[in-house]
From TrEMBL:
The chain crosses the membrane at residues 222-243, 255-278, 290-307, 313-332, 344-366, 386-406, 488-513, 519-539, 551-572, 578-600, 650-671. Belongs to the major facilitator superfamily. Keywords: Membrane, Transmembrane, Transmembrane helix. It comes from Arundo donax (Giant reed). GO terms for molecular function: transmembrane transporter activity. Residues 452-464 have a biased composition (Acidic residues). PROSITE patterns: SPX. This is SPX domain-containing protein. One of its GO terms (cellular component) is membrane.
Length: 672
């Protein structure tokens, strides 16, 4: 009906029947009425569910006196039926939340007017907001609490009933409760530490439309997951272990110290291409890409270590390029999203981010420990070559462990997922919430396609393709809304600023403060160690107090402050100024990254949540391009002299940061 209204409004405005103000007023009223209808229906059905729980509670009170195991089982199943109906209700609300977004997007598209900004800003923040009831559930928590408590009472079949309140540290586990929590989290975007880290990694759980996770406990292999996380850790160590000594290595080969930008950035250059083919390769296998990654990294580090004795900068850069071609982070993300059961996927995602952060901290720390020099059979082992030799040995050990311990999972095809969705799964997709409910909550697939078919006149997605993954970068780009583009710009900005800070740290601190390699290594390791504590604070506390978009703007402003305070304004650049500004920039860039990827996972198309050209690949490419641009900026600025290096490299960071803040405010009301 709303689609037809939009078409009518277009015709009326073209013929002069109505002006724009009349259309906006009438369309707002119609949309308000529809949202109110959804909210009242939601409250009505919550009341029905509450009544059923109350009736079951009376039956449970009788069973407390007469412990009949068969009746306990029946009562437990009845409670679960209520839970499954609540899941259906939440999916109904989720469908309508998607409908609200789509009709607002359609109105903006057909009229060329940013009606969404006006509507969301006036409705979402109003004290009597009904749109808040759609996106953020409150009454559902009480129903979930009642279900959890009563199911916990019935868990012990021997009749020894215990309360969940007696053991608050123990989370009650039941399949229906997990499904409800997943649906609630999807609607409310509520976040805890683990979920925050999972979004930080941009590993977004796919919607559980079928009501069951396609990855069962039997097919899940813990050692394979451990190997996947070990690959993530070693790769991050490999990336940052050379940062404290890259400038000294380039000087020893007859190049300028600022050529360290090329040495560090060459790995990122190769990663731009490796991310694509690894993402595509992971559609067919996980074991072979990881083996290939290990081999490339082994030979890359071998060349990096041999470049010193060969006195060849070319061999050094080729070695780093091979390391970049072995970047399997796309496979690491994909393995977690596809091959880890949903109930532990958040923990696995948190492990991915933690392994990355730990590797980022350990890389410079290991470099600080390798301050020695000796020769074996004519091969030089010193602070420049030892990072290559250590990583070469590490990847060789990892390759043997991978070869004998990794278990290739049975890959779940998208066709299987779609078939499962369409065929349904028992009581989850059939029946009404109440016996007396006149209309089904979820319309059938055919009716849904017929309804979507009305929309083809303005070149929207074909209904059959609306849930399929995109098959090219061009198709992925067409799905990028202004909000998604701004979030990718922000991601580019923060990666650019962080890479400038980290890559030039050795050159800058040596020039201004005469720091040794060990001091630089300690400084970088301390920066890396701030990642997890910052994520704990933001994920557990800050996101519960403020909206993500508010945190986003605040973090951008703090990064801007960090960049501005990093400039050398006087002839005497002090250590406190550099360290404090670096901490501000790095810490708030980390805050910004987590919130940015959380918002990105929320505003991007569902078609970008799977397949080769997914949201994770797009963000990886944006971040990798930022690192390449930053490292090339350092090398180019080196031609102006080390005395100007700091200020010249900070100028692009400043400009991009200001641009991202302006772009954020332009799309602020759509980040909801």
């Amino acid at each position: 009906m709303m689609k037809k209204k939009v078409k009518q409004y277009v015709q009326q405005t073209q013929t002069g029947g109505k002006n724009r103000d009349q259309v906006l007023k009438e369309f707002s009223r119609v949309l308000d009425d529809q949202i109110e209808k959804i909210v009242l229906f939601l409250l009505q059905q919550q009341g029905h569910l509450a009544s059923r729980i109350e009736n079951l509670g009376e039956q449970r009170a009788v069973l407390m006196e007469h412990s009949d195991l068969s009746q306990i089982f029946q009562l437990r199943d009845a409670y679960r039926e209520v839970g499954y109906d609540l899941v259906k209700l939440l999916r109904f609300v989720d469908m309508n939340a998607t409908g609200i977004r789509k009709i607002l997007k359609k109105f903006d598209k057909r009229f060329g007017y940013k009606f969404t900004d006006y509507y969301v800003s006036t409705r979402a923040n109003h004290p009597y907001s009904q749109i808040q009831q759609i996106f953020k559930q409150v009454g559902v928590v009480a129903v979930v609490g009642a279900l959890s408590r009563n199911l916990a009472y019935l868990q012990d079949h021997q009749g020894s009933f215990s309360s969940i309140y007696d053991h608050p540290s123990i989370t009650f586990k039941d399949p229906v409760i997990e499904q409800i929590n997943h649906s609630v989290q999807k609607l409310t975007h509520s976040t805890n530490f683990l979920q925050f880290l999972g979004q930080h990694a941009l590993i977004v759980p796919e919607d559980m439309q079928s009501g069951s996770d396609l990855v069962d406990d039997q097919s899940y292999h813990f050692v394979s997951l451990l190997l996947n996380l070990a690959n993530t850790f070693l790769y991050m160590v490999n990336t940052y272990i050379i940062v404290p000594t890259a400038d000294d290595y380039s000087v020893s080969l007859g190049a300028a110290a600022t050529v360290c930008g090329v040495i560090i950035g060459s790995m990122a250059v190769a990663q731009i291409f490796s991310s694509v083919y690894f993402s595509a390769w992971s559609n067919r296998s996980y074991f072979r890409p990881l083996v290939f990654s290990s081999i490339m990294l082994f030979f890359g580090n071998l060349l990096y270590a041999l470049a010193y004795d060969l006195s060849s900068l070319t061999v050094l850069i080729v070695g780093r390029l091979l390391c970049g071609l072995g970047s399997a982070r796309a496979v690491n993300r994909r393995y977690i999203s596809d091959c880890v059961p949903l109930k532990i996927r958040l923990q696995a995602s948190a492990g991915f981010v933690s392994a990355s952060a730990l590797g980022m901290a350990c890389g410079p720390a290991f470099a600080g420990l390798l301050q020695t020099k000796f020769k074996i059979y004519g091969l030089t082992f010193n602070q420049n070559t030892l990072p290559g030799w250590v990583m070469c040995l590490s990847w060789l050990v990892y390759l043997f462990w991978l070869w004998f311990s990794f278990k290739e999972p049975g890959h779940i095809s998208i066709e299987k997922s779609v078939n499962t969705l369409s065929s349904g799964s028992g009581h989850l997709v059939s029946g009404n919430l109440e016996d007396g409910l006149g209309q089904p909550l979820l319309i059938g697939a055919k009716e849904r396609q017929d309804e979507n078919g009305e929309d083809n006149d303005d070149n929207d997605e074909d209904p059959e393709d609306s849930h399929k993954p995109v098959t090219s970068l061009a198709a992925a780009y067409r799905l990028l809304t202004p909000s998604v583009k701004v979030q990718l710009l922000i991601y580019f900005m923060l990666k650019f600023a962080m890479e400038i800070l980290l890559s030039e740290s050795s050159v800058v601190t040596t020039f201004y403060f005469k720091w040794t390699t060990s001091t630089v290594a300690i400084f970088l390791a301390v920066l890396g160690l701030t990642v997890l504590p910052v994520n704990v604070i933001v994920g557990s506390y800050i996101t519960n107090l403020f909206q993500d978009r508010q945190i986003l703007v605040a973090a951008e402003i703090m990064v801007l402050i960090g960049i501005v305070t990093s400039f050398c304004f006087t002839p005497h650049y002090s250590v406190p100024q550099y360290v404090l500004s670096a901490l501000i920039t790095f810490v708030f860039a980390e805050v910004l990254e987590g919130v940015n990827l959380s918002l990105l996972s929320r505003v991007m198309s569902s078609r970008l949540s799977r397949g080769t050209y997914n949201g994770g690949l797009l963000s990886t490419e944006a971040g990798t391009l930022a690192r390449v641009a930053a490292d090339m900026t350092i090398t180019a600025a080196g031609y102006l002299g080390q005395s100007r290096l700091l200020n010249v490299t900070l100028l692009p960071s400043l400009v991009i940061c200001v641009a991202s803040i302006v772009a954020t405010f332009c799309t602020y009301n759509s980040l909801y």
